[in-house]
Amino acid sequence: MADFFVAGETLVDFVPGPGATLRDVEGYAHRPGGAPANVAVGLARLGSPTAFWTRLGDDPFGEFLAETLADEGIPETHVERVAGKTTLAVVSPPDAAGPRFGFYGSRDVAFGFDPDAVPAEALAPPDGEASPGGADAPPWVHLGGAALTHPDGRAATRELLSAATEAGCPVSFDVNYRAALASDGDAAAASTAVREAVAASDVVFCSDEDVSAAGLSTNKGAELARDLLALGPHTAVVTLGDEGALAAASATAPWGPATVRHDGFAVEAVDATGAGDAFTAGFLSRIAGARGDGSEDRDGDGDDALRDALAFGDATAALSVEAVGGMGSIPSREAVESLLAGGE
């Protein structure tokens, strides 16, 4: 059984070449992307076996993404191929006005998950009963918020959350709300679905922009984390860009109550696309061993577990911004550990 089960979109990112505005850019490079896809591949690169439920179009871009996932060691079991054109996410140059991403192609392909096709069997332990911390423990489930902008994506996410709860899976949720993806009349329903997903999750990841766009909170930093904890999760992680990240956990968290911050690493940034996803993969790969299930003894103090996971996530993100593209720039576990140990 996989350590993690990730669900969500796989897209093609079009990353601009040098230039501050669109007039200055001479061309774009296509790169595999999509926040959940980046997290799934990141976890695999960091040494955690990961299953991934996603949808790809039947066009050449879909074939490109299918080959990329296979090359990254993602099993094809839950990679669906459907009729339609793959969604493209065009990244804006750094000084361009408006949203950072513009989306083109079929929303139905990337986000229209079939609620009746939720692979609940992938979440249950082989013998139907999990032993805490054992090899037969259920996988950690990770979801993204972009699919909630689509009616079928919302329904499928609710079904998957229900199946994960029934199977006893820890659940993490990346708010990652993209208002531009919600069609007319869907914005209110999408915002409500984001709030429900936060409440149904154990660990939530976000930036203040994500949360503000989804209508959950206008606060920032530690106050934002506290707002999210009040909605139901036991741990809230707020990414702060080049200033690092912070995490807050309540008394119900397996690693105990704590509020900690890590200031990140000084690196020469080339492209920040997918840096938040790299952070999420790094954080999850580290915190999953501190579930409080007997696999590690944290003595009821969450400071060490969260501080360690924040540092690992920030190191993963720092290395990822040194190359172009989200998915392809995620480093190996050895590279992350070298940075944490003070290496190059």
From TrEMBL:
Keywords: ATP-binding, Kinase, Nucleotide-binding, Transferase
Protein's UniProt keywords contain Cytoplasm: no
Gene3D superfamilies in UniProt: 3.40.1190.20
Domain of life: Archaea
Domain Carbohydrate kinase PfkB: 3-332
Keyword Cell division: no
GO molecular function: ATP binding; kinase activity
SUPFAM superfamilies: Ribokinase-like (SSF53613)
Family: Belongs to the carbohydrate kinase PfkB family.
Name of the protein described by the UniProt record: PfkB domain protein
Species assigned in the record: Halorubrum tebenquichense DSM 14210
